[in-house]
């Protein structure tokens, strides 16, 4: 306790002397001889029991510097001291003591209490204290509101943060840059980048100049929108704000997420020009960006550059570099980096080993992969499911399927709980070895346990394995199980099923079963359940129609148009829409809405408008979704006049605008400057 003498200045002599003797417990035993309020004594005792001697001394000094009697000033200083040391529960005790002592809290003490709850991560309590202010005669000020918004940010409640920001003018509190920054950060934590951008744009309207913190929070919110993040970095320069290391790191991270590794490296180079010295986060994000771009040479140069720039690499730096080598198929370099980690006084962690094992797997070095797996316990690193799954994948040669099964049994250990990748690797190994019955047993085990649930790869590998069974009914039975398992078939599912049945000349039966299975998804599958890579599946089925006995209906075609929407294939969507009358299938509102959305996503606003007109020709009444999609397409294309025209046409068409309609309409008004 080198600074104890300085900290005891202002305490009663007897207690100060004992405190300087480095035994705070003796000082607390002397408290009964000192006229100190019981509430303060309780705080001091609890601090001491918790080993928080600095907190106790801070409270002691604060109280004795003012008064030993229960006054608002004494409580205020004690509350502030507890807040600085994260003793939020003592703050609540002091507030309760104020009520029993008939001491009315003032605005400063109440704000300090809200701040203490914020620092302690107690969002609900902070909001409760804010809501109680009117009942005790206190009017919230900018500190009260900003602190509560900041608590929402830390608690991940961006909706409440925005609500408080909106309530500030109603409460006659003028928002400041701190309130906006906290709200933007709350949106960033909630993944609401559009709302963060909206708040940033609203700051000048409220006569508030965004600062570096404002832009940093907004750039961080655009983690998955690298182009927007770079635009904000450029905007900072136009606003004469100097981006700092946090600004650049957020931009590099956005480029990493977007797979733009070259742009990430460009930002890293620009940091030196902007006099923002890169730190370990800057380099690690850049190395990870290269890893996602399958660029393995650059991470090696970056690791060397870190040493030249006197930035100490950490275990993340090496792990990302090893992973980059794994993505680039350079297993020898990956193992070299892994072996060099101890020379830099870093112990490889589970991510380092997993990346090294994966590199060996891609290099067809299954013995080396197993050797690395066996070295993990000696390095005091417990293998997890990722490491074991990578090792199982290394054993996918026909002669090593039994080793794969033995490794799969390892995942029963607590550190390596079986996951879908582990099982898929085992099924794939059995499929390559022609052990289709073992593959089916593994799939059945997944379905029976329910953890993990089989995915499309599980079914695809099992269907492919059944090619050795010479029984076309087995793969079709697996395919028919996919809808019940909420697994969306992909191109490989279709191909595997058809090719297996072609062997026995049952391809038409196969096509019928596959088509019926696909149709079961069309009415109930959500957007999140169909990824971009699966849009080709319904199209492959539709392409087989001329050679099959299947009679398609509107649901069949709508599934195909929706798939084109997901895949960004607007021209194919229009083709399918045009094919419906040829098969005597009536186009419905849903058909047109999917096609309009596909055109909107592609920026083809004129095509979207044409489809809206065709709906009237087809005697279909557009709904609010139809209008919103067209209005949004025009708005994105900068055609604000057309957006406003469509908005006005909704009333004439007896379509009631919803919240999205008004949002788009207001945006058009703002664009027009009306």
TrEMBL record:
UniProt keywords (A-Z) are: Repeat
Against InterPro entries, the record matches this protein to: Ankyrin_rpt-contain_sf, PPR_rpt, TPR-like_helical_dom_sf
PPR repeat windows: 106-140, 141-175, 176-210, 279-313, 314-348, 349-383, 419-453, 455-489, 623-657
- Descriptive protein name: Pentatricopeptide repeat-containing protein, chloroplastic
Q: Which residues cross the membrane?
A: none
The record's section on PANTHER family has: PENTATRICOPEPTIDE REPEAT-CONTAINING PROTEIN GUN1, CHLOROPLASTIC, PPR_LONG DOMAIN-CONTAINING PROTEIN
Q: Which organism is it from?
A: Symbiodinium natans
